[in-house]
Design a protein that fits this description.
- The chain contains five helices and eleven strands; from the N terminus they run E-E-H-E-H-E-E-E-E-E-E-H-H-E-E-H.
- By secondary structure, it is of the alpha+beta class.
- It has two domains: 83 residues, Pseudouridine synthase; 150 residues, Pseudouridine synthase (2-Layer Sandwich), CATH 3.30.2350.
- Strands 1, 2, 3, 4, 5, 8, 9, 10 and 11 form a nine-stranded mixed beta sheet that branches.
- Strand 1 and strand 2 form a beta hairpin.
- The longest helix has 12 residues.
- It starts with a strand and ends with a helix.
Length: 234
Amino acid sequence: MVKILFENKDYLVVEKPSGISVHPSETSNEITLTDQLKSKIDLKDLDPIRPGVVHRLDKNTSGILIIARNKVSYDYFVKLFKSRKIEKHYSALVRGVLKHKKAVIDSPISRDLNNRTKMSISASVGAKNAVTVYKVLNEYKTSFGMVSLLDVEIKTGRTHQIRVHMKAIDHPVAMDASYGDRKFNEAFSEALGLKRQFLHACMLKFKDPDGNAKIFRSDLPEDLNDIVIKLKAL
């Protein structure tokens, strides 16, 4: 179930668990996050397929999301995201040790020409600007190599942005089935038991429609926190 962290007349802040899509797709009949929240949303003038959705998380990524409850707040938050006035942080575990403990990745992203379900770094005219800032929080030694826990801030909100950028610098997100290292993922899963990518939207900071400064935080869910505990014990 979706956990509601905050709600008022204009918007909800929710915690999306891994394994649930934000909104329906043409190829799936699963119960989605928006299906669970429709009773709390004024559906008038909102997209019936994605009511109130102003930003998204991948199905296998957990964490904080804003859901607008009406058209006025929807327009407000869409504008806020487009003007990059919402601070967004993620916790990510990646393969290896990063040379730079804090850095900016500034590389445009577009749809992968060879696989339309994936994204890639691109210099094409249609590629969209994408900026990711990371900071190394901890490094852990395992039997199959080093891994690093990162705080990642995305300045832009491109599809699969963190996953694509981390792959591009040869430090893919642990257990990322699309962009990760297959052999590394197999060893990681066998040793530690994780079944999905280690990526969690842990913080949002913004001014809401009433002008109030808001900060929302989300601790690592049980499956990811268990991995950190295991890594510390190695």
